[in-house]
Design a protein that fits this description.
27% of the residues lie in helices and 36% in strands. By secondary structure, the protein is α+β, with helices and mostly antiparallel strands.
Length: 221
């Protein structure tokens, strides 16, 4: 029997030695990838706390890049994510922040550069593969990824929330939690739901006035 490396399967749903440092990190990066939307050309990671101290040994760097590439937590190609990213023409850089960490010990800030723009996201791996997204493009939010969810970027204007809720009612989609965040320029609705949504639902909500973008995350997959 061959020896198991740090990137062999540990349990049925992940690759790597630590659910916090690999599975959680990958999930955060996958969300950044989905929110970016366009073809990714480069990505910059800043690691804080425990992530900054142990990211090479625990494979956090390869897991983060695997998430940017769209890999699942049990993908054996995570160990090859550096080589795959280079083959796809994606530039990547890892930095660490050594000053006093104001965030959760396992925190990363990701800036994704894509055709048409850039996006910055901050998230933490809070244990057991669970995550919390705490900032998108400078707006503080709270998003756990425990439910299927939509992240909606919208204009900060009267009536927008009512129109969004109307689409949920029309398509009989039950809202488990809904939070609205704004900073005077950006506004986000984080809508966690019971069940899933259809293609027709997505098309209708994207066409609402004053909606800039909509991303749907099916965490049941």
């Amino acid at each position: 029997m061959r020896e198991l490396s740090a990137f062999d399967i540990i349990g049925p749903v992940m690759v790597g030695p630590s659910s916090s440092h690999t599975a959680g990190a990958l999930k955060i990066a996958r969300i950044a990838r989905r929110l970016a939307g366009g073809k990714i050309t480069a990505v910059h990671f800043i690691l804080y706390g425990s992530f900054a101290k142990t990211y090479r040994g625990h494979g956090t760097d390869r897991a983060l890049l695997g998430g940017i590439l769209g890999m699942e937590t049990d993908d054996l190609n995570i160990k090859n994510s550096f080589e795959i990213a280079r083959a796809r023409g994606i530039n990547f850089m890892f930095d660490t922040e050594d000053s006093e960490n104001p965030y959760h010990p396992n925190t990363v800030e990701i800036t994704v550069f894509f055709e048409g723009g850039e996006l910055t996201l901050r998230g933490s791996s809070v244990g057991g593969g669970e995550i919390e997204i705490t900032n998108i493009n400078g707006t503080d939010i709270s998003f756990s990824g425990q439910y299927d969810a939509l992240i909606i970027r919208q204009k900060d204007a009267p009536g927008v929330i009512a129109r969004i809720a109307g689409v949920f009612e029309k398509h009989n989609v039950n809202i488990a939690f809904m939070r609205v965040y704004r900073d005077g320029k950006n506004a986000y609705s984080i809508v966690e739901i019971d069940g899933s949504v259809s293609d027709e639902f997505m098309e209708e909500i994207k066409k609402l006035p004053q909606i800039d973008s909509v991303s749907y995350f099916d965490f049941a997959d």
